[in-house]
Specification:
The chain is an alpha/beta fold. Helix content is 31%, strand content 23%.
């Protein structure tokens, strides 16, 4: 069997790895993607294995969202074994940063332990989401404990942004995603069935009901038994150039910025984060191991999210400023003395309905993997396992078909629910960015203004019996998303 994998982010490489582990002498696995990995969501990721810490109020109320959480929770439990398999496969070829890696727990680039803080930097949406996290931890019997914010190592926020509550989730951890990609690259490079090509895909060509050829930007033409399109946010661009005649909802560029710093005096040993807030994941600071012989004093700060119909190659100054201010004010005011190492920009693939596009298409030998937003790294063990099962004709949970790439957009929210959620999140975002209302009815008036504007937008796009996902508002407002 010959398989061409288009893309070289964490999901593409995870699929390639699982295929390699099952390959026979005559199998071929080609991974095509630029070594520069421009816009890679993986390289900008916090790579937190957070399932419970990402829960929001109301996010587990539907069967679909419960299933998505089930997969997320499963992925957290799968990572220790998955990483161990990668280490064993790479062997002596492990890159220097991973050369002494022993895997979970405390294996260097990976560890477990996440603190969630409920602070006063935004509004009471934080309180609701924090309560939802606690309720889910209790409901699923997940180990956790309430802790005093004062006992969190190197948690030293400015006084006006201090946490009033905090909890510790011992089984949710973090990676250095750069080292994980290097580790996967090393394991795959030594495998006899795997070949890398340093070029992105340009388009696909069909023959009947099958994909016949993948044409790369360097002009190279690749034939195969199976094609896996896993190029992240550029999937729609590739499909548009391919003219395959299949309808797949648009994938947008969730442009995210994360910042790597060096903080010798105040290093981190655990992840510290807020609940999700203001259409994003709040503020987080994650230990960022770089090599086994130096001090572990690098930290990743994140993250921003700016949805765009086209790629943006540089992070916005406002994103960098807000992340730095939030980390200094809400996590450790001593970060102002830290050294700036790198600003990462990644394009999180975000579908129009905000659910992932995963699985087979009308072309019998084409699988599409995209739309994972900020969950791609976390979910890669689960996604890759299911994709390999598809390729080998093995049964998988029929519920997974809900993510079929050619489905109609999922209308998960009613109009009323979507508008109410958008109002709450937009006001929360305002408070995060310094909103200080006058002592009158300003907060209520602002909510009324947002409500009126959202009602009009829903009318304009024909969203009468369904609601626009809050993070998609601008894409609908400016005509980039179709009703």
């Amino acid at each position: 069997m010959k398989t061409v994998i288009l893309g070289n982010g964490i999901i593409a490489l995870s699929v390639a790895f699982r295929l390699a582990m099952r390959s026979s002498e005559n199998d071929e696995i080609i991974v095509a993607g630029p070594t520069t990995r421009t816009g890679s969501a993986t390289l900008a990721a916090g790579a937190m294995l957070n399932s419970f810490a990402e829960i929001e109020a109301g996010s587990l109320e539907s069967e679909l969202d419960l299933y998505r959480f089930e997969l997320s929770h499963l992925a957290t439990r799968m990572w220790p074994k998955f990483e161990k398999e990668i280490i064993e496969a790479a062997g002596s070829s492990l890159p220097y940063g991973c050369s002494k890696c022993q895997g979970f727990p405390g294996g260097g680039c990976v560890d477990i332990g996440t603190y969630v803080v409920n602070n006063t930097a935004a509004d009471d949406l934080d309180d609701e989401n924090y309560d939802a996290i606690v309720a889910a931890l209790d409901a699923f019997d997940e180990p956790f404990k309430h802790v005093s914010p004062r006992d969190i190592p190197n948690y030293m926020p400015e006084q006006r942004h201090r946490a009033t509550r905090a909890l510790y989730i011992p089984n949710e951890g973090w990676f250095n995603p750069r080292l994980m990609l290097e580790k996967l690259d090393a394991a795959l490079a030594k495998h006899p069935s795997v070949k890398f090509i340093d070029s992105p895909v340009d388009r696909l060509e069909k023959s009947g009901l099958q994909i016949d050829t993948a044409i790369l930007e360097n002009g190279q033409r690749l034939s195969a038994d199976h094609f896996i399109l896993a190029t992240g946010a550029t999937v729609s661009h590739v499909l548009n150039k391919s003219d395959l005649g299949i309808e797949i909802q648009r994938i947008f560029y969730g442009v995210g910025v994360s910042i790597e710093i060096q903080s010798p005096e105040f290093p981190h040993t655990k992840c510290i984060r807020t609940p999700n807030r203001g259409l994003a994941c709040g503020i987080y600071t994650v230990p960022y191991f770089t090599n086994p012989d130096g001090p572990n004093d690098h930290i990743l700060l994140g993250a921003s999210n700016y949805l765009s119909p086209t790629p943006i190659h540089g992070g916005k100054i406002s994103s960098v400023e807000s992340i730095l201010n939030a980390a200094i004010q809400q996590v450790n005011f001593n970060f102002y003395r830290a050294n700036l190492v790198r600003v990462n920009v990644g394009w999180r693939p975000t579908s129009q309905d905000t659910y992932p596009l995963l699985g087979k298409t009308s072309y019998s030998n084409l699988i599409i993997l995209s739309g994972t937003k900020r969950d791609g790294f976390h979910m890669s063990p689960v996604i890759s396992e299911k994709v390999v099962a598809m390729l080998y004709g093995e049964p998988i949970d029929e519920r997974f078909e809900v993510f079929s790439p050619e489905r109609k957009p999922i209308r998960a929210l009613t109009r009323k629910e979507a508008i109410a959620k958008a109002v709450r999140h937009q006001i929360s975002a305002n408070y995060q960015h310094g909103f200080n209302p006058a002592q009158n009815r300003m907060p209520a008036q602002l909510a009324e203004m947002y409500q009126d504007g959202l009602e009009r937008l829903h009318d304009q796009v024909g969203a009468i019996d369904w609601g626009i996902p809050p993070e998609m508002l601008d894409m609908y407002r400016y005509g980039h998303a179709l009703s």
